[in-house]
Amino acid sequence: MAEAPKYTNSLIHAQSPYLLQHAHNPVNWMEWSEAAWNKARTEDKLVLVSIGYASCHWCHVMEHESFEDEDTAAIMNEYFVCIKVDREERPDVDQIYMDAVQLINGSGGWPLNMFCLPDGRPIHGGTYFPNRNWNQLLFQLHDLYLNRKAEAVDYAEKLKEGIVNMDVLIQDSQSFPDKKALNEILVNWARQFDWIHGGNARTPKFPLPVNFQFLLSAGLLYPESDALKMVRLTLDKMAFGGIYDQLGGAFSRYSVDAFWKVPHFEKMLYDNGQLIALYARAAGVFSEPRYAAIARECCCFLESECQAPNGLFYSSYDADSEGEEGTYYVWNWEELKRLPESVFPLFTAYYTCEEKGNWEQGKNILHATMSLEDFAKLQNLDTEEVQKIITAG
Question: What CA–CA distances, in Å, run from 62 to 54, 203, 218?
């Protein structure tokens, strides 16, 4: 008989799979509710709003390091009211505190951990914290609220104003984009663009499909600009990279490097839905069959792997398997050698696999450095023949 859990908190009554993952933490988690905020006001405590989702790798890591740790949980329970939120269940809550963490740090992500006054106004936040840093932060914020409450309230008010201003949209009666203003945007964009690998010139590197839809539109309006070049280079490099599942289809959430090679392996429904639209549109704009193929492959993945029996779609696909991130998607040399002899040389050459591995611990991430057409020319073979051989793998 399985041993009964040592701890059970109020999340045991939740419906969200993510919240249920935390139901046996020693932290006294509560769901987002009026009861939780009333408790904070009554006890005059800071509130920790911790936001994540079920397939988030770093959410799992932080849970294991901090939220399952009894000493850390004791600090959290003593000094804070702790609220867990599933961003896929409450995107409205997630958006408010994501705006706040981006104002504080200049970037955001998940897990999203935001500390708030009892009235909900944020005062400090971040994403993943290693356990030692997390414990130090807990003590620092408790001391701030206990001994310098006026400072905390003043900062919270300024942060609130910043969040409000982020959502202010200035309406313009001009329906057609001003060419000068648009050109300034494109020039600035080009300065931050990676002209070798596509995407923004920083890591981690996200696909950002809405941005490239904008560039596609701008390039069609003003073809003399570099907008279409930026779109095409990025779509090509992403499609060749490890961020794209070369065998199963669909894109991972982001690349940890500048080359689109090493992905953060989780796959998100909302990312792939937008990327399908982007690649499908680009296929028409550039008359590029490869982009249409990518869009179809993504659709096939979502239909076969993410569609529930009731016809709805699951929101994400976990990065972890066998207790490790990405294990399902990577290959060692011995596994690759099980390919048919007629397939092995071309398959490993096209996907740049190495006997010692092209990633960590002797593992290979399948990724290409060129199109199948260019690869076939290098091999003095017909493109269809090469595609048939590689697909047979």
Answer: 13, 21, 41
- pLDDT value at residue 170: 55
Tokens, residue 386:
């090469």
As a whole number of Å, the CA-based R_g of the chain is: 24
Model's pTM, two decimal places? 0.80
Distance between CA atoms of 85 and 214, rounded to whole angstroms? 32
Q: Do 14 and 147 fall within a single domain?
A: yes
Taking the C-alpha atoms of residue 357 and residue 348, their distance in angstroms, rounded to an integer, is 11
On whether both 17 and 92 belong to a single domain, the answer is yes
Give the span between the Cα atoms of 219 and 215, in whole angstroms: 6
The values of phi and psi at residue 281, to 5°, are -65, -45
Give the C-alpha distances (Å, rounded to integers) separating 266 from 2, 56, 90, 212, 327.
30, 7, 20, 21, 11
Domain that holds residue 52: 10-166
Strands 330-331 vs 263-264: parallel, antiparallel or unpaired: unpaired
Domain contains 198: yes
Total residues found in the chain within this entry: 393
- Count how many Cα atoms sit within 13 Å of the Cα of residue 119 in the half-sphere of its side chain: 6
Residue 75 falls inside a structural domain: yes
Within 8 A by CB and 6+ apart from 175, the residues are none
Do 220 and 286 lie in one domain? The reply is yes
Which CATH number belongs to the domain containing residue 68 in this structure? 3.40.30.10
Nearest to 152 by CA among 119, 115, 121, 123: 123
First to last CA, the chain: 44
What's the mean pLDDT when you consider all of the chain? 93
pLDDT tens track for 67-108 = 999 999 999 999 999 999 999 999 999 999 999 999 998 889
Whether residue 152 is contained in a domain is answered as yes
Nearest to 370 by CA among 200, 239, 229: 239
Q: Which residues pair with 320 in a beta bridge?
A: 325
User: Rounded to whole angstroms, how far apart are CA atoms 253 and 206?
Assistant: 7
